[in-house]
Amino acid sequence: MKKLVLTFDDGPNPLYTEKLLEVLNAHKVKATFFVVTKDAICNPKLIERMKQDGHEIALHSLEHRHALLSGYIYTKNDFTKSIKLLKMLNCKIRFYRPPWGVRNLYTANFTKKHNLHMVLWDVMVEDWRVKNTPGILASRINRKVFDGAIICLHDGGERHGGDYGAPLHMIKALQMVLPKLKKEGYEFVTVGEYFDNE
């Protein structure tokens, strides 16, 4: 069975994440959500829904600040506060993805200190731009995927640098591609499932 890892960054966002969860549930697809901790704390019901639906929750920083603008103290607090707050939501975090994939001199040290594994991506389709229609996004996903690919999409929208409404295009694109990819023999797994079975 071929595998794909579907991941979502920058959420949760009450405007989009619930709609996304509905689509994933309808297609019986599990994903990993790299959440921004401050948004997660503000939307505990969405986090609970993710867990109930069998999705994995991972860390995407405290407030989506660029690592190159962050020194030692900020980076330390970013990890420490995030882990503490996510534990309050009963989330056991194993994986971390830095915003924009950017790291500073301290990122690797704190990732290791908190027993996290850094995970980047193989496929990105600029789904944060509203000019990219569902058809364009679906075509890019279909063209770029391969067995074992980690796909990075975004449900945060305008909260963290995306265009207003862009996640709605991404969600419609998923409705187009998920049945097709499953028909082609792909199984969707979480980051944890993927690495645990390597």
Secondary structure layout:
Elements: E1 2-9, H1 17-26, E2 32-35, H2 37-42, H3 44-52, E3 56-59, H4 72-88, E4 95-96, H5 107-113, E5 117-118, E6 123-124, H6 134-144, E7 149-154, H7 166-183, E8 186-189, H8 191-196
Parallel strand pairs: 1-2, 1-7, 1-8, 2-3, 4-5, 6-7
Cα(first) to Cα(last) distance is 13 Å
The CATH architecture comes to Alpha-Beta Barrel
- Record field, number of beta strands: 8
State the helix count: 8
**In terms of structural class, how would the helical and strand content be classed?**
alpha/beta
Using the CA coordinates, give the radius of gyration: 16 Å
Strand content: 15-25%
Low-pLDDT stretches are: none
Helical amount: 40-55%
CATH class: Alpha Beta
Largest sheet: 6 strands, parallel
List SSEs in N-to-C order: EHEHHEHEHEEHEHEH
Mean pLDDT comes to 96
Provide a descriptive summary of the structure in words.
GO terms for molecular function: hydrolase activity, acting on carbon-nitrogen (but not peptide) bonds. This is Polysaccharide deacetylase familiy protein. The two termini are 13 Å apart. Strands 1, 2, 3, 6, 7 and 8 form a six-stranded parallel β-sheet that branches. 42% of the residues lie in helices and 16% in strands. Strand 6 (123-124), helix 6 and strand 7 (149-154) form a beta-alpha-beta unit. It is built from eight helices and eight strands, in the order βαβααβαβαββαβαβα. It has one domain: TIM Barrel (Alpha-Beta Barrel), CATH 3.20.20.
Can you describe this structure in just a few lines?
The chain is an alpha/beta fold and about 200 residues long. The chain is built from 8 helices and 8 strands.
